[in-house]
Amino acid sequence: MTDTSNNAIWNRRFTFVMAATGSAVGLGNIWKFPYITGEYGGGAFVLVYLGCILLVGLPVMMAEVLLGRAGRTDPVHSMQENAKLSDASPAWSFIGYMGILSGLMIMMFYSVVAGWVIDYFIQSATGAYSNADVETINNNFGELVNNDSRELVLHTLFTCITAAVVATGVVKGIGRAVEILMPVLFVLMLLMLIYSANQGDFASGVEFMFKADFSKLSADAILEALGHSFFTLSLGMGAIMAYGSYMPGNASIAKTVFAVGILDTLVALIAGLIIFPIVFANGMESNQSVGLMFKSLPIAFSQMPGGIFFSSIFFGLVSIAALSSSISLIEPGVAWMEKKGISRLKSTITLAATAWIGGTVCLFYGEVFDLLDNFTTKVTLPFGGLLIAIFVGWLMNQAVVKADIKLRSDLFYNGWLWTLKLISPLGILLIFAHTLGWI
Ligand code: PHE
Hints:
Layout: H1 13-24, H2 27-39, H3 43-71, H4 75-85, H5 94-125, H6 134-146, H7 148-168, H8 170-199, H9 202-210, H10 219-232, H11 239-244, H12 253-281, H13 291-302, H14 307-339, H15 344-364, H16 366-395, H17 398-405, H18 410-435
Helix pairs in contact: 1-8, 1-12, 1-14, 2-10, 2-12, 3-4, 3-9, 3-10, 3-12, 3-16, 3-18, 4-5, 5-7, 5-14, 5-15, 5-16, 6-13, 7-8, 7-14, 7-15, 8-12, 8-14, 9-12, 10-16, 10-18, 12-13, 13-14, 14-15, 15-16, 16-18
Phenylalanine is lined by residues 23-24, 26-29, 106, 231-232, 234, 237, 239, 325, 328-329.
C-alpha cells in the first residue's frame, strides 16, 4: 500500500484514538486551559467548560468524524462527496477550504509558542536554571520574546519536525508517531502529577480548580469556555475530518469520540492539577495569564527539590503535545493537495513553508499573533463547527447518519441528534453575538 492520504486507512481503532487525541491534546490543554482557568477564577469556569465539551464539543466532533469517514478523502473532496450523496449544494466544500486555511493560520502562531516551549525544555535540560535567581527567570520570558533570532531558530526547528512527520505519510509518519508519542505523554503527565501531589500545595490546587464560586462567573467566562472547547478538541477546521477518513470502517464513532473527549478533558484537568499546586506552593498567584506556564511555573520549579529535572520532563511533554497537534494542522491541506495530484513531499513543503512565513511575521509583529489567535478561535473554528452541525443535523441522509454513528440506543441517538441540531448551533451563535458585542 502506498502511504498517501488517497487510500490510507489505519488498521487499528487505537491509532485513530491516539491521532485524534494527539491532535486535541496540545498547547490548548497545557498552556491555555490552566491560564484561562486562572484568569476566570477556577472552579465555576471548569464546570462551564465541562458542560461546553459535553453539549457542543462532543456532538460536533462526532459529526466531523462522520463526515470524514463517509467521504474517505481530504476535507474538501469529502464534503463534495457528502453533499452529492445528500443532494446538497457542492458549495458545502467551503467547510474544507476554510478548514485548510484555519489550520495554516493556527500553525503560524502555534509554532511560535511551541518554539518557546522547546527553549524552556533545552534550558531546563541543560541546567541553565540550576543557579538562576527568581529575577533572572522572571526576565527570561521577556528576553526570549524580544530575541527574534532565537525565536526564529526554534520556530523553524518545530516547523521542520512537523513537516518531517507529515511528509513520511499517514500510516508510517503520523500513525506511527502518535502511537509512540501519546503513551509517552500520558506516562510523563502521571509522573508530573505525582510530583505535584508530593511537592506542591495539592489541596489548594484542587480547591481552586473544583470549588465552584459562581459569583466569579461572567458572560465573558462562559463564552471563553465555549470558544475554547472548539480549539481544544481541534474542531471546525478539518483536522478531525481528515483523520476520520483514515479511521477503520467498523469502529463505532460514538465510542471512539467519547474516548478522545475524555482523554482531552483529563489532560486539561491534570495539567491544571500539575501547574496550580506547584505555583501555589511557592506563594504565587493563579492569574498570571500567558505567563503562568512561562514565568510562574519555571520560578516555582527553580525553588523546589528536583525542580530542574521535573521542569525538563514537563517542557518535554508539552513539546510532544504541541507536535502531535501541529501535524494535524497541516494534514488537511496536504491531503487535499495530494488528491489534486501533487506529491505528499511537495505538498508538505509548500504548506509548511507558508505557515513558516506567517509564523515569522508573528514573531516580529505581536499584533498579527493575537489577530490570528482570535480570528481562528473566535471566528473560523466556531463557524466551521456551525456549518458541520447544520449539515449533519439537518441536511444529511438520516439513515446513513444513524448507521454510521452506531449509537445503539434510540434515546442516546436522538439525544445526540437534537443536541447537534439545536443546542450546539445555538451555543455557537452565542459566541458570535458576543464577539460582535451584541451580548
Ligand atoms: N487542539 C489543539 C490544542 O488544544 C489545537 C488545535 C486546534 C490543533 C485545531 C488542531 C486543530 O492545542
